[in-house]
Amino acid sequence: MVTQYKCPNCGSDMAYDSESGHLSCPNCGRQDDIETFPETNIIRKFDPGEAKEYHCENCGAVILTEAETTATHCSFCGAPVLLADRLTGDLAPAKVIPFTVSKEEAVAAFKKWTKNGRLTPRGFTSGDRIKKMTGMYVPFWLYDIEGKADVAALATRVRSYTTGDTIYTETDFYDVRRELDLSYLKVPADASEKMDDDLMDKLEPYNYEELKDFKMPYLAGYLAEKYDYDDEQIFSRVESKIVPYIDSYIGSTISGYSTVSYTNKQIHTNKKNVYYTLFPVWMVYYDFDNKEHTFAMNGQTGKVVGKPPISAFKVAAWFTGIAASTFAVVKAISFAVGGVFW
What we know:
By secondary structure, the chain is α+β, with helices and mostly antiparallel strands. The protein contains 4 helices and 16 strands. It has helices spanning about 105-115, 195-200, 235-255, 310-335; strands spanning about 1-5, 15, 20-25, 30, 40-45, 50-55, 60-65, 80-85, 95, 130-165, 165-190, 210-215, 225, 260-290, 290-300, 305. The longest helix is centred in the last third of the chain and has 25 residues, at about 310-335. It is flat, with a radius of gyration of 28 Å.
């Protein structure tokens, strides 16, 4: 794998200077500490022959594997024919969270999970209905984000007291100002067009203590999807994730007042570092009632997400039970207070 350090000033390739112990730009003379060099200026690319890229002509999926792995079926649509190319010069992942849940453990965990649904049809949990289970690395971008908030608000504290027969209400007014600097580290967003964003979001959280520098051997035995969206294209989705947290934090700093009315609230976000990362996911394709249902499992924690089928009979029975219980409670209360309920 080739790693390039691009000069933040002029964009030239920087090299390590043994005398200073820093990265040095031969073009403009800038020097930077390797340990604090901005991730956004580091470019990693595959060496020739280091990886393969498979193209599915049926659904258009692009899948990455190590050079020794042969993919014969598309992990998305199941098409049997894939066209392979040697991957050269393409952007390589910076980080990876390796699989810790084996396929056997994933199968057992999923079967256990299917039995937890109280409203699923009776036959949903019986028999071996797993059509296919594929372990794949899903492309994510991890963002280190700096948030700034400039807030102005009019707040009040209201106090009431009684003197003699007169009730007094005293209101104090406050001009509240807040200037906040906040940091959010490694906020994830999947970069796959084919993966459902809501499904991928629900697989969180991942344990970042197991985040590793990417190396090709981690792909051995698994597939990896190539990203469809770069970090600029999905940054707005990440902003929509963190702005509510910033807004909540602003509110927590303005407490103890009777009322708060914002006269100005400006929130700005800026990405400091971005990491192209692969997260482990088991994709489960499950047959039931002549339909294929898709579920996803976090390949690190074993968390399962997806929408199982719902039994109309069980739903009706559940509502009937609730209605009967409510009727019994109301009748008991009516009897206790001396009333009549029919």
